Amino acid sequence: MAAPLSHMAAPPSVLKEFCPLYYLLNAIPAKVQRGFRSVLVYLTSLDISSDFVAVGSSIGMLYLYCRRLAHMNKYSLEGKCDAITAVKLLSCFDDLVAMGTASGRVAVFQLVSPLPGRNKQLRRFDVLGLHKGMVTSLAWSTNGMKLFSGDDKGRVVFSALDLDQGVCKPLLLLEESSGVVQVQYSHQVLLVSTQQRTLLYCTQNQEVLQLGTRPRKSSGRFGACFLPALCKQSDLQVFAARPGLRLWRADVRGRVEDTHLLKPLFSTQVPQFQLFPRPGPVGGYRPEDRQLGLLSCFFRDGWILSWNEYSLYVLDCVSQVIVGALESSGDIVSVSCCDNEIFILKGDRDIIRLSTSPEGLSTNCDCRSRSSSVTSWDSLHGNAPLTSSSSCEVGSRRYSAPLGQEEMQQELVVQAIRVKKKKKRRRQGEKLSWSRVRLTCSYWFCFLLQFAESWMGYSGPGCGILSLQVTDRFVWCLDFKGGLFCSPLPETGLNWQRFEDNVHQMALSPSGNLLWKVEQKSLTAFACAKVTVRGKRHWYKAVEQSAFVALSDDCAWIIRTNGDLYLQTGLSVDRPCARSVKVDTPCVFSQVCVGGGGVVWALSEHKALFYREGVSSYCSQGDGWKYDTVSEAQGLELMCVALGYGGTAWALDASGSLWFRTGICGSRPQGDDDHWWQISISDYVVFDQGSLFQTLLQATQSVATVTRAPVERVVAFLSQYSQCQPSLVSANGSGVWVASGRNQLHLARGSLVGTFWQNVVPRGTVSATRWTFITSSSVPHREGTFLWLAQSRKDLFCVWDQDGELRPTSVTLPPEVELSHLSACRDALWGLDAHGRVWIRTLSPSCPTGLTWTPLDLSQLGVRLVSVSCGSQNVWAVDSRGVVYFRVGTQPLNPSMMLPAWIHIEPPAQPIGVQLVGIQTSPNDRLLWALDNRGSVFVRIGLSEEMPVGTDWELVPGLAVAQLLLSSRTVWVRCVNGDVARRYGVSEKNPAGDYWKRIPGHAHYLTVTPQDQLWAVTPVGGLSRRLTKLLPQTPFRPASSATSLSGDDVDDEWELI
């Protein structure tokens, strides 16, 4: 039996990171445009409350996320854009947020509240000229009438606010000889911690008292905090950090009553906070001597949160234990806590949330026993049962974010169910005696993560990965230097151990009981049974002059160096090798792969794919080889193939693309599909490298580019290893693994969506017909979509997509008119000619393609339009100067009647020479996006039935766009290079969405139906439509069951580490 590959682990903490804060990071851009300069945005400060998350940035912009509304607001200061170095929230009668900058400026925003009697207008108060250095700390009084601020020059400023009168009166309160690191205020006593001492300042009599009798011998960022829940000033107690892991407890007069010596607590193993797996190196420098830092009381009586740049600790001063620690993380910028949550700002853009429960659950729920434990960390890794006797209600003060499609924005309601005893075994997975549980978006996302968004990434063992194989328990890798490494299947990371050296190629049986290796120099194949990671191994000489080996649980297929193929049968743990029998082949093979049910595939040296017919348990050799025409028909140059569980075949081509086919079985070894389905691997567009979704993806290129797939072009590194056959894809019961030439592994443990572009030839046309344009609209009298096609500017055809033969109907254009642009809705067709004139064709159930064209009177505008877009009720347009216009009504009216008014809408502010050239509205008028002449896209925010023109424009970075497309619920684009991408996370509350994701395919022109079906004009002028196939996979554990999801809403995630 194999020995476990594990090392002594620290005991787990009750606090952990349940889910990365994608929604928060994604709402903050990584770059902004300042004139002609692109400026990086770094996150510099952080504060949280039960209702808000406030994040300061290096560009002087405060990002305030409302957890109740799942909406991000931005607040900026005029003038010089200083970094915001401190923020502080307060929720009293009004919601207030204070910020301090690097130049010493302090500003207070009184937020707008929808509640009756509350503030209805955003107001700002400024404190200028009193601070001489960077503001380091802020503190509010409970009623919001007093604000205290400290800077790194030792000054403490008191600002008295009268919100009713709109007055702010600042006053210099204290001036110390060293910088202020922390301030707190309670019961008319101000607690100030500086680099050299901690003092108490009584605001009633201006008395200053020092904690202890002398200042500290060594300066440092040591903070102090008041103990909460005390009712009068005389009862106030203070905790103060001291060098050498000491903690003072003092009274309100500064007298030290007790000293906690914490160093003995660190002599044993410190429990570490469990973080979600992250790409890249996660460690950092930690000084040899541990030290406390800034202090806050946290969650429970006697719990103290301490943090500095290098580490964070939660201490239980009552029980004298360490609750948890985050050490060697490096570059901790800011920390804030509220209720049972700790938010940590690390580095430039990483925010971590530690808590006892996932976001969206109340603080008194035990994450191991709550009724919704199906989405806890433990159950995500298969460690927790799906049963619970306790229930958990959602805290009314916990809110989450829009994390995807409209379906995810709604609450997931889980009803209690009854299970009959007879079906107990069959329905064990449904044995849930749940109370009614409501899960908000963030928690719903964690639920989906188990099933559909679970691509994980890991680092390989060393010098690149040449071969990869996985079994039900272990991952095996062969590097370029011939090192064979092994690791158990991961929970949070891979723990590699060197297994053998000087290995040319390796093969494992699916059960992991048989292992063969081919030695580098002799090219002799050796077999080993009863494989153990540790201990002695006995190798049996199997076959000489071997180039490639593939194993099933009872057979071995061997390709010799001269190209001959041999088979060994009857293998077992007691008989790991046997006599070889030659098998005829139609050509020289370079790779063989073996799947369940007696399926055998092979790749020739010219990358042709073959499958073996007649293989069964009674006839291991089979009847003969048959050429697979599917790969040839698609023009795929396959580099390596693998047969996985559930009758799925996987392949990597020379460009690094991943493909799959289904229905592979012994009776039908070629499978059910007549084509390969393509899957994108990390084809995301993000704002900048490492800027957001850092636990789901890692960008490798700059803004406005699509990230490369993590599978490098195989040909590039095979040029040096031409004698080796790579095996970079492998599958087991829990998912599919893909390796790259850059020492990285990628694991998919969830449902995937495959894409296939099907060529379409409308009846009456030929395959050589060249189309130039396509758009779509709903059919006014029946289901389906009308496709409006053109071969030039002088013709137009209409096709109903529900017509199996796709018979085109010719649509006559106005005399001597060449259409340059077309927009269609359910009841009208709007055409724009080369002179900027608009022609409207009315559509109706009795005449679905219309009868005549009516010119639209544009005398009111007196401009030349370059783009129009029709929704269900409204029309939007852009003129040659980039100005936007809005009109209610899609129909032309009688000239004798009053014409609908065109409303002028200001375009987004842009540099000289940059202007809008296109506009698109969704079929339901809920979304509006615009495109400028540089390929940048903008979204109109604030659209509603009450405000159909919206309120403002917002730049959506990440792509150079040539064409915009809007369905009823999301946005698609065609990039300048022809790539296709979709915007995920678009909703009414989040019209800008979350991120771009590239969709396999290349197009000259695109259209999308209201139901998100894509049609395209190919680069050579052909017509094609996008088909998708959902590949449900067993999440995390082979024994568990998958959830049925469909379509593009399943966003298959890859993570690159």
UniProtKB/TrEMBL annotation:
InterPro entries registered for this protein in UniProt: Beta-prop_HPS5-like, Beta-propeller_rpt_TECPR, RCC1/BLIP-II, WD40/YVTN_repeat-like_dom_sf, WD40_repeat_dom_sf
GO biological process: protein exit from endoplasmic reticulum
Residues covered by the HPS5-like beta-propeller domain: 41-348
A single GO cellular-component term on record: cytoplasm
Gene3D superfamilies recorded: YVTN repeat-like/Quinoprotein amine dehydrogenase
Designated name of the protein: Tectonin beta-propeller repeat containing 2
Source species of the chain: Sphaeramia orbicularis
